[in-house]
Every structure is written in C-alpha cells, then in structure tokens.
Design a protein that fits this description.
The chain is built from 19 helices and 15 strands. It is an alpha/beta fold. A hairpin with a 5-residue loop joins strand 14 and strand 15.
C-alpha cells in the first residue's frame, strides 16, 4: 500500500477523533486513534495488535469496523477462543449500534422499546440494510461453529477479527483461514493478542513482514493518561515477572517455565557470525597449493585444520509425512556454525541417501574431518545403513556416519531420560553459552520455541513432543549430536 505522509496521517487522525466523538461519544487517545484509523481507512490488510491490559484494543477494533459497516457493504467474522471472549465482542458491537443513530437505523431490528432493542442488538448475528453483516463465533473445541460462513466477498469488504489469538487452537486456525474463500488476499485480517507464549501463529505473524504490527506497552498508556506509573508498579509487585511481561509490557516472554529454549538466545545466535567456514577454506587453500607458502605456514595449517569438523545432518521423512531436513555446518573446538540447509516434503529413503552423499562430496570433500549425523529410527534406519555402505564404496576415510537414536540410554543417564533429552539440552547449553551461530530460519525458530521439557518420577529430564513434528529442530540437534568420543579419522 502507498506510504502515507506525516500530514496525511495527522489529517486522518483528526478525522477519526472527530467522527468517533460525533457517532459514539467516545474520546480516544493517540494510540487508540491509530488503531481505529488503520482499520477504518483500510490502510493495511494484515494487522497484528497487542496492548497492555485494560488499554481497550478490542474495543478500538470494533469501533473501526463499526465505521466500515456504517459506510457500506462489509462482511465481518469476529472470533474469540472461548464463549467469554466472543460475548465481549458481541457486547461491544451492541453498544456501538445503540450509540450511533446511523447504525441503529440501518440495523435490521424488529423489536420496539429501548430494552427490547438493546436485547436484539446483542445478537451473535446482525445484518444491516446497506448489505453489511457480522457474526460472532467461539473457536472452542474443534471450532465446528466456524464452518459455513465466509467473508470472501467481491463486491464489498471482508474482514476476520481474531481476539485473544494466542489462545485459539491450531485446529480452529485452519478453519478460520478457509473463511476467506477464494480471494484471501483481498480480505482484511486482524489479530489481537495478549502474548502469553510464542508457540502459536500470533507470534509468527509478529515476525511476518506482511503484517502491520502495533505494540502498546504500559509506558505509552502512562503518556496518554490511561493509567499511572504508580498503579503499574503496584501491580508489578503483586504479580509474577512473566505475568508483568505479558500483561503490562505486552511482550512475548523469552521463555515459558517449561520452555527448553530462550527466544532472546535464539535471536542472538541468529545475529552471531562465526567465520569458521571461511577460516577452513583458507586452510584448505594453503594445503592444496603448498608451493605458494612457507614450510612453517604449511605445518601450522596442518595442525590448525584438525580443529575443524564439517558436518552434514539429516532428519528424513517419508512420503509427505512431515519434512526431510538436511543441515550442514562446521564445528570448531565445540562451537558450531550452521552454514546451509535443504528441505523437501516427500522423500524416498534412497533419495535421501543420494542427497546426503551429494552434499558430503560437495561440502565435506576428502581433506577435512567429516561427519554425517542421521536419524536412524524408522525410515532413517535404511538410509543410515546405505550411507555407511556408500561411504565405504567411495573410499571416504575422513568421513564417519553416525546413527542418531533418540530412545537410547543417555551418557549421563542419572540426569536425562534418554539421548533425545541429553542432546536437546546440549543444544540448549550451546545457545546459552553463546557457542552456536545459526541461520535466520522461520520454521527452525518456531520449532525451537515450541520445545518443552518435564521431569520424570525419577527426576530425569525428558522432552515433551509438540503436536507437529519438529523436523528442523531435530536436524539441528543431529548437527551438534554428542556421541562420538572414540571416533578416529583417516585421510586418503
């Protein structure tokens, strides 16, 4: 959309302040005006909105939509995770209809008398004489109530509003997406959330450049006169730090109590730029062209290159179940640099072998220590066996194939329930101790954030599997897999 000038924004803000007072007799603050403006003027098609508790973000959204309904044909689906939130949306819309003579006149009501009109205006479905319509849904359970209603109209404006989006289950989100019909790009999608945890689509949307993200913390509320610093500090002393982060800072917490990975640490690893791969390439160059360097330089290069190991890791998936993910990177003195990746939705076991071998020949070569770390459970068992055969056939004495088995006994079996837990916590330590550099990959970040753990009755740590298979997270665990203390390498 065309970027507005400062003067255009100020003019629109003045209009919103005026029209909201004229129609509904509400005085909005600066941040509230901006929320209403973006909706009423259709400035963005994808909006993500969070604000500290009691700021009125949901009410502001309903005001913006009420202005659109009053103006012309607008079809709206309001969706809350539970009946409680859905009822709040219904209450807000009812109040706006009753406060606006224009909306009340257009609303298709049959009752007479103030109390009866008020009751009828609070229905879950409301139609208007100008062709506008809204319905209010709860996304409880399997969200069957959502099916059958679409907002994808071609002769008007289609809008979906998800309130408390972090609490809406994944099954419902799939159905909500289908409500946009055949022209989802033309529909307006508005997502409101209190950022309780990062393992949901609302968090992903805050990272998506297609979304306009509005974030309002308590400091802005103090500036706008909607709350006081004294009140906020009193609340800070009465609630937990996590609750304050969510309810008053309006930020996603870096980690939940049972989270395995810290969001801040993940971002730091994305920004960290190890140079291991370039260092290794320089050493390889010296050893491949010894006549260009002195004997001492060559001697040092031969010693230094032993500090590096190139690794290809793979989490294979069969016939469209999950994803096959291949990572490659470098380890230097227990620090790791993720260099590249490949993924595909469908994989035959021998196709996986072919892709891994191609990457080994291209990336590892014959002059550096190399590892191929692959899941050897299920489909991976056949690929693991064949990889060992191919490595032997091709004479790669500098490369070893490691079969990663999550269910095996951990090396520190008094602490971890199995090797899965042991190696996931090894990865956690690499993040926390600033010993890993990763690429900025949306799926990887999402899956790392979703990982949880608990303790068994014998006080051993165990990983809780998320609903969706964490293929990208698993591939990273295989990249840093620790189970090779007795390995020896040779070179052709």
């Amino acid at each position: 959309m065309t970027k507005l000038t400062t003067k255009e924004i100020e003019a629109r803000n003045r209009f919103i302040r005026f029209i909201v007072w004229k129609k509904f007799k509400y005085i909005l603050t600066k941040g509230q005006i901006e929320i209403v403006r973006k909706i009423a003027f259709l400035e963005e098609k994808r909006l993500s909105i969070s604000a500290y508790t009691q700021y009125g973000k949901t009410f502001c959204v309903t005001i913006g939509i009420a202005l659109l309904i009053d103006k012309g044909k607008t079809k709206v689906a309001f969706i809350g995770p539970l009946q409680e939130q859905a009822s709040l949306l219904r209450q807000y819309m009812s109040e706006l209809i009753l406060r606006s003579k224009s909306l009340l006149k257009k609303a298709m009501l049959t009752a007479e008398g103030e109390s009866r009109i008020s009751k009828e205006a609070s229905r879950k479905r409301m139609t208007f004489t100008n062709g506008s319509e809204y319905r209010i849904f709860s996304a409880e359970g399997e969200a069957k109530r959502i099916m059958g209603f679409g907002v994808g109209i071609t002769d008007g404006i289609g809008i979906i509003v998800k309130d408390e989006s972090c609490l809406i289950p994944k099954a419902a989100n799939a159905k909500i997406g289908r409500m946009m019909g055949n022209n989802p790009e033309d529909c307006i999608f508005i997502e409101l959330h209190n950022p309780w945890n990062s393992d949901n689509i609302a968090f992903e949307h805050t990272l998506d450049p297609k979304f306009d993200v509005t974030h309002i913390g308590w400091e802005q509320g103090v500036k706008e006169g909607r709350t006081t610093k004294k009140h906020v500090m009193e609340q800070k002393n009465e609630i937990t730090p996590l609750e304050f982060t969510v309810l008053y800072d309006s930020n996603f917490p870096d980690e939940a109590e049972d989270s395995l990975f810290n969001l801040k640490r993940i971002k730091e690893a994305e920004e960290r730029k190890y140079n291991f791969e370039n260092e290794l390439l320089e050493l390889e160059k010296k050893l491949s062209e010894p006549h260009k360097y002195s004997e001492s330089e060559i001697k040092i290069a031969k010693i230094e290159i032993q500090k590096y190991t190139r690794i290809v890791s793979c989490d294979p998936a069969e016939q469209g179940l999950d994803e096959t993910v291949i990572f490659w990177g470098v380890e230097k003195e227990n620090k790791f640099q993720l260099v590249g990746y490949y993924s595909e939705p469908k994989s035959e076991p021998m196709d996986v072998v072919g892709r891994v071998i191609d990457k080994m020949e291209e990336y590892i070569g014959r002059k550096v220590k190399g590892l191929i770390n692959i899941d050897r459970i299920g489909i991976g068992s056949g690929a693991f066996s064949r990889l060992k055969e191919v490595i032997l056939e091709k004479g790669y004495k500098n490369v070893k194939v490691i079969g990663c088995h999550y269910g095996e006994t951990a090396m520190k079996k008094d602490i971890y329930a199995n090797k899965k837990a042991e190696n996931y916590f090894r990865l956690q330590a690499l993040f926390n101790e600033e010993m890993i550099s990763i690429l900025e990959l949306k799926k990887l970040k999402k899956q790392l954030i979703a990982m949880r753990f608990k303790r068994t009755s014998s006080n051993k740590k165990i990983i809780i599997d998320p609903d969706d298979s964490p293929d990208w997270a698993d591939a990273l665990v295989y990249l840093i897999w620790k189970d090779r203390s007795s390995l020896t390498f040779a070179f052709a």
